[in-house]
């Protein structure tokens, strides 16, 4: 298996025109129906004018990121990375896929990495109990620089760090370039300042300093991540329409959405892919869940993403997938070559429930269970696709991340929506700014306070004693 990954869409298609699948005739007509639109999607990628291609230009920043990572590695035992949404999920996906879930417990000579992506005061406080703040570096990631949750975290940890005598010049701030508060603070502190490309939205920013710096600190070569993304990019723009994975999968998912498949499940068959699943959920939901089309029509576009973990979720949500509402399309992500496997020795030979394991491996069992689950779902009329990764490597992960970014952008074109904004998130932010007393939102505060009081009055509270 020389390619970085391959995609099997055969079980999204039915030769018998089975309800809930794409008919063979419809699939064969995709090129005539959607080919021009796909070429229009490819053009800005080919010309490096799409926002997602800004990541490919980050190669020039990698040398400086490597130098900064080396300095932090030499000075500190711990890193506290403060971020939320795209400022955290991508880094988490990279670290877990390439280091596994126990990185902070292993002995490897690199700093432990704690990524705090919530405002929960219990989380924020308890983090101080597991690190020596004097041996800890702070990375504050906020694309806009005004994200209220991460700003509050930074204020708290900055003061703790300063009180402990921390070196303020070693703080790292990652944000948009601009004349705003976060850039003013960085220059005031004289700390490290890394800029995200201005037109690269946060949820697409993993292949930039947002993901590259934590990767490099923990010993991952970010140039290899970017090389995988570049390979995926080249394949997407060069592969003919009839064999193009983005075209085939994206068009199938759109057509299935039109048939009522309103939930897109990504069933990841490795614990190394758990955080990738959460990254996918944000990318898919925030990019495709839109009320308005590009021409202002109310469309309520998008499908609901859901991440599941195999084999774990075979024992929780699989029952619903197979016998519940037929409103889902399921994508399986598997890894072809694992660096290690576990062969099971003979034990309890007299017991039929145990004796059959002898000589088999856990990797073999996981692969069989994945295929059995997929076959069972397809047999029950649930359309499925499968994406197989070559191995666990930075190149494969970089390709996987870029593939799903491109898939989202192409799918958005079919929906005729903007995949790079998130207007539905703004109202909650505005209410928060006003009620927390942000000066430039003070005029809105009375209206919001009145709305909050009215909202609470409408509640129906029930007690459990």
UniProtKB/TrEMBL annotation:
Mind listing the UniProt keywords for this protein, alphabetically?
Cytoplasm, Gluconeogenesis, Glycolysis, Isomerase
- What Pfam families does its record include? PGI
Enzyme group, top EC level? isomerase
Catalytic reactions of this protein = alpha-D-glucose 6-phosphate = beta-D-fructose 6-phosphate
Q: What would you give as a GO molecular function for this chain, any one?
A: glucose-6-phosphate isomerase activity
- GO BP of this protein: gluconeogenesis; glucose 6-phosphate metabolic process; glycolytic process
User: Where is it chiefly localized?
Assistant: cytoplasm
Residues of the active site are 286 (proton donor), 315, 429
What pathway, per the record? Carbohydrate biosynthesis; gluconeogenesis; Carbohydrate degradation; glycolysis; D-glyceraldehyde 3-phosphate and glycerone phosphate from D-glucose: step 2/4
The EC number(s) attached to this protein equal: 5.3.1.9
Q: Name one GO cellular component term.
A: cytosol
Q: Which InterPro entries match?
A: G6P_Isomerase, Phosphoglucose_isomerase_CS, SIS_dom_sf, SIS_PGI_1, SIS_PGI_2
Iron listed as a keyword = no
Q: Which PROSITE patterns does the protein's record reference? A: P_GLUCOSE_ISOMERASE_2 (PS00174), P_GLUCOSE_ISOMERASE_3 (PS51463)
Protein's cellular compartments: Cytoplasm
**Gene3D superfamilies attached to this UniProt entry:** Glucose-6-phosphate isomerase like protein, domain 1
Assigned protein family:
Belongs to the GPI family.
Purpose of the protein: Catalyzes the reversible isomerization of glucose-6-phosphate to fructose-6-phosphate.
- Tell me what this protein is called: Glucose-6-phosphate isomerase
**Upper taxonomic classification of the species?**
Bacteria, Bacillati, Bacillota, Clostridia, Eubacteriales
Q: Which gene encodes it?
A: pgi
